[in-house]
Amino acid sequence: MKISTKGRYALRMLLDLAENKDSGFISLKEIAERQGISKQYLEQIVTLLNTSDILRTSRGKQGGYMLLKEPSEYTVGQILRITEGGLAPVACLEDAQNRCDRAENCKTLSVWKGFYEVTNKYFDGITLQGILEGQREDVGSYII
After folding, report:
1. Who contacts 101 (Cβ-Cβ below 8 Å, separation ≥6)?
2. Per-residue b/e over 30-59, b at no fewer than 16 CB within 10 Å?
3. Phi and psi (nearest 5°) for 67?
4. How big is the chain by its Cα radius of gyration, in Å?
5. Residue 102 CB coordination number (10 Å)
6. What is the pTM assigned to this prediction?
7. Pick from 12, 16, 7: nearest CA to 82
8. Mean pLDDT score of the chain, rounded to an integer?
9. Neighbours of 19 (CB within 10 A)
10. In this structure, what DSSP letter does residue 55 have?
11. How distant is the alpha carbon of residue 4 from its chain centre?
12. What residues form DSSP beta bridges with 127?
């Protein structure tokens, strides 16, 4: 699995908003400058995030963005699912019901399910607040 720049930059953008949450609404220009990401690319990311009720938006000269909730209420898993379209390592696990004709007899399905479960548990165990504090919840022995 490879996380796209969209997912990585969305995480950086939201961390920037979390880190500066006491500054009110923050413009994309400010975030772009601090993070070294183009403003145009952040505009694409904001479009995705706005449809997911993650951000508060204010238009106008003093406008910008801020987190809708506290940083502790956002997980990396939630953010990546929005930007990446999901975390499933194989297509047959993308939907709640596996529609693959081979699912009943697939010898490798358990491998992909296990990877999927570990990935979700790991990313869902990390919050924006935890990253800011340099902490992670205990999400299993696979953390080094």
Report:
1. none
2. bbbeeeebeeeebeebbebbeeeebbeeee
3. -70, 140
4. 17
5. 11
6. 0.86
7. 7
8. 90
9. 15
10. E
11. 11
12. 75
Reading the block at residue 112, the tokens are: 């992909």
CB of 23 closer than 8 Å to CB of 62:
no
Tokens of 32: 């772009």
Tell me how far apart the alpha carbons of residues 120 and 52 are, in angstroms, rounded to a whole number. 19
Whether residue 66 contacts residue 26, with contact meaning beta carbons closer than 8 Å, is answered with yes
The amino acid occupying position 1 is M
Q: Are 75 and 121 in contact (CB under 8 A)?
A: no
Q: Which two tokens stand for residue 138?
A: 């205990």
Distance (Å, whole) CA 140 – CA 37: 33
137, 131 contact by CB (below 8 A): no
| Residues 111, 129 contacting (CB under 8 angstroms) | no
Confidence of residue 105 (pLDDT cuts 50, 70, 90): confident
What six digits make up the tokens of 38?
Answer: 């183009």
Distances (CA, A) of 123 to 21, 40, 109, 136: 22, 27, 21, 10
pLDDT digits (tens, 9 = 90+) for 48-70: 999 898 999 998 888 899 999 99
As a whole number of angstroms, the longest Cα–Cα distance in the chain is 60
Q: Are 128 and 15 a contacting pair, CB within 8 Å?
A: yes
